[in-house]
Amino acid sequence: MMRLQILGTGCPRCKQLLANVQQAVADIGEEVEVEKVEDIKEIMKFRVLATPALAVDGVVKAAGRVLSPDEIKKLIAS
Amino acid sequence: MRARDQEGKLFMERIRVETLAVQRECDLRCLRRRAVTALGAVGAPVLWWLVYRLLQPAADFVTYRLLSLAPHTHLASSISFFLFEVPKVLMLLLLVVFGVGIIRSFFTPERTRQILAGKRESAGNVLAAALGIVTPFCSCSAVPLFLGFVEAGIPLGVTFSFLIAAPMINEVALVLLFGMFGLGVAALYLATGLLIAIVAGWTIGRLRLERHVEPWVYQFQADGVAGFVEESVDWTARMAMGRQAVKEIVGRVWPYVVAGIAVGAGIHGYVPQGLMASFMGKGAWWSVPLAVVVGIPMYSNAAGIIPVVQALLEKGAALGTVLAFMMSVIGLSLPETIILRKVLRWPLIAAFVGVVAAGILLVGFLFNLVF
Fold first, then answer.
1. Model ipTM?
2. Domain residues for B294?
3. How confident is the model at residue B221, as a pLDDT?
4. Contact across the interface for A49 and B140, Cβ inside 8 Å
């Protein structure tokens, strides 16, 4: 099952990314695991320099910006 | 046939051939899209300019004709100020945030880190401050960024130069200053902001405060997971980033702008001329330290504070005092300090705030002396 992780310490943009991810997943209807990573030490394991960030199956696909549900859907599809 | 006619015919023939070639690779829908984009690219700035020129007349019209307020009264003053400034500032913001969003698509934190890694101090401080202006930065990213910089071997002082420049010298502040006070003040703010970022960062580096960084930062070992690799960005994506920036920034900031202008309008209409001069003017030397001390715990984004700044200046406050106030409000924020607490111990945070405050103080005094 695909695993989406949202990396962020809890600022409004991180919450927005989580909301967008949840909407994209709901729209697609597939089974996708969604996890919010808030602990800074865990986030740093992904070696990102800017949050919020989105990782698909452990690989960071975007960092520092909030993706729209459409963009997230494209990421899931690829 | 005469030579001119022949040239004309050849020219038309070339156009016909090229149009056919374009059409072959781009069907009607694509042509229409390109035409619309081209129209938009030319038309949008023109439209913007026209509306911008009409703002003052429109504000006057509403205040004095529609609302029938008597001229030269406090209320009329405040209202016309408000009606003019709100759309004006929002339009400026729109333009600049879009433009800077595009500029920022060329700079990522990863690229900045690459550029800064391995640079010694002094040169590193200057580069870091300059990059702080153009690299997208949000204070919630302060910690990941700090860790990433440390990991790349960037000296503490250089990292601080970046962290000081990034929030303080932002495009919103520069544009608003330009729009309201002209190129001179905006350039001044840019130059002094850079100077403070460079010197303060360098000073903090000299103080050798590395022992006050939380130990886990230096012990941090990456698992070897590949870092984020940025995908290549084409111009459509860049424009999308510009639009995204406008939605995010202007969308978030406009209430502050309106509130700030409302306060400014009140000051503009009701505070007597010269009142500010008495306690924020050049004569009151203690106004600069007071402005800095009041400004540090306050946090507003640039958009909200600048209209207030304009009104204060208008009423006789000294330029140095007002600049110092603005820099300490925008540059030093309590939320960011709290976030940095995760990676820095209090002595280092105190040093950070202290050095930057001292820099702002000096700038304030200097300006009151010179201007």
1. 0.81
2. 109-370
3. 56
4. no
